Automatic annotation (TrEMBL):
Highest taxon of the lineage: Bacteria
PANTHER family in UniProt: O-ANTIGEN TRANSPORTER-RELATED, PST FAMILY PREDICTED COLANIC ACID TRANSPORTER
UniProt-annotated location(s): Cell membrane
Pfam family, one: Polysacc_synt
Protein name: O-antigen/teichoic acid export membrane protein
Naturally occurring in which organism (per UniProt): Bacteroides reticulotermitis
Amino acid sequence: MAGLKSLAKDTAIYGASSIIGKFLNYLLVPIYTISLPASSGGYGVITNMYAIVALLLVLLTFGMETGFFRFANKGDDDPGRVYSVSLLMVGGISIAFLVLCLLFLDPIANLFGYGEYPWYLGMMLIVIAMDAIQAIPFAYLRYKKRPIKFAGLKLLFIFISIALNILYFVVLKGTDVGAAFLINLICSFVVMLGLIPEFREFRYCLDRPLMKRMMRYSFPILILGIAGILNQVADKIIFPFVYPDKVEASVQLGIYGATSKIAMIMAMFTQAFRFAYEPFVFGKSKEKDNRQVYAQAMKFFIIFTLLAFLAVMFYLDILRYVIGRDYWEGLRVVPIVMIAEMFMGVYFNLSFWYKLTDETKWGAYFSLVACSIVILMNIFLIPIYGYMACAWAGFTGYAVAMLLSYVVGQKKYPIAYDLRGIGLYVGLAALLYVVGEWTPIEHLGLRMAFRTALLLLFVVYIMKNDLPLRHIPYINRMIKKK
């Protein structure tokens, strides 16, 4: 019981810090898009740069975080030795990568279109190296069950970042995109200082057999990680290379990046659901057959995401103000990107079957198929359709991965999902969305009231069919008292 309480507490801290962190980081969107007009292409540079950062971080950590946990908990190796070897490998590769890139900074900057501002890329390369190195001490904090320091450093980064961005872009009215990268560099350095006690526990040990075993274990995770991150950022990396007008590419990418952030509200909702529901799902793992639990989890996940979808779309007339007005033309991507996020969430829930059967190779197959679709659609369609191709590529890639996982999963590990019930929810949500979007109401207040009524109709349907009020503990006690 004590172990479960500890797990619940740690999960709450990690979950809350992650969700709060994402929400606070979301505040940078209005700061950047209001301070940097769409025509400047500044936000397009930020979007492109952070996509490159995300991909390089996966490459430089090469699955070693997971490898560290696996070997530190295995019992065959000293955890301190595993930590030191992990840090030595990631740190060595990251520093070598940084030195090599800085030596050839100008040609690399020219390759990515930053020939006039090579230190935009230079600063972010330093950030990438620091963040990759920090990944191992952060994993060590989780291993040592120190969630408060872990969450504290993560939130410290975000608070300092927001404060400095507000100071430069809002108070001082600055417009240099490079300031955003300099601020990130400062914040990463502060976190590095906070991890000094963990770095002091490093002991140099060149354990080649352990290194080889850890590399063999981590390599498949690296492949999965590359495929997964490319599904999310390939469009933002490819866009400047294939869009016909190189100058206009930053403008269009900025519009797409900013409006996509509104759709990322779905990611925060789904993550909140996962933190709340996963402990319940895995708490049932000792039961003889928990397939019914997985089926219920899937249904509630879809209900939750459909509710989030309707909420965002119905109040988009208000949510649009989180980005600058000249970015609004890109709001048409929001429903597409949100549905793509839903597909990704369903795909995540479906992943239980190949994890439970130890056939994780299927996850690699599905991710690689999705990744290939996303990359090819972006390469061939961006020159014709611009950023709309990015939205539809993500939609298609995740849809295919989701369907493949379902079809193969039903053969390998059949689960009786409530397809009829799920279909009714999807149909009702689609109907309410169409009614809300196509009913012409000019007055904003009346339009919001009408859409709120539609949203409440969906909530009532949920309450009536799958979440009766009497099943909610507090309300159930009130009913019994009466």
